[in-house]
TrEMBL record:
Name of the featured protein: Response regulator transcription factor
Domain OmpR/PhoB-type stretches: 123-222
Alphabetic keyword roster: DNA-binding, Transcription, Transcription regulation
Pfam families in the cross-refs: Trans_reg_C
Domain of life: Bacteria
Amino acid sequence: MIVVVDNRELVTSGYQSLFAREGVSTATFHSSEFRDWVETAPDADISAVEAFLLGDFDERAGCPRVIRSRSTAPMIALSESRNLDGTLDLFAAGVDDVVAKPVHVKEILARVGAIRRRENAETTRTVVGEICVYQDGRDAEVAGKAMALPRRERRILEYLVANRGRRVSKQQLFNAIYGIFDENVEENVIESHISKLRKKLKMRLGYDPVSSKRYLGYGIGVE
């Protein structure tokens, strides 16, 4: 999920629509609401955020400090014009990247991926049993072979592997895949995605690596 912060509804709704076309969920905030949300949102909601996209608003310079108190997700600031002093101020405030508008959402996603790869330079992959998940955009490997998955099934697998050794709830998975404010999708759709993913993994491995317990959730590498 990408969090977009801007005081102009036209901007936030525009990005929400554009990211949706790329299969990426978003949550949008007015700057007056954003700080309160970051400080009070449940950990499950914060952990679902893949990146923060900060538009042009007066309180922006204070956002990185607030965000970093809860999240390590990449922060990208949007610049309305090319201004060296303004760009330097934003980097000094703690953002990870500054992008001049107009910019395509695919470029934003590519920049988010690049930031995450730099941060995970020492751990570009995570291995759990016969499953290997990469942080650089490559397909996961299962039983030594690449496995191409639909975006949402792939994101579920990545989320489960990232949280290996512990269980995650259906709500946590839903938040990570669809965003915390998507009221147009039923939470139970996650069960369908997980069922399809588990069948594919079982066909490749000969067993189901995902365990589930009622009321506790799903997990990989969990007894």
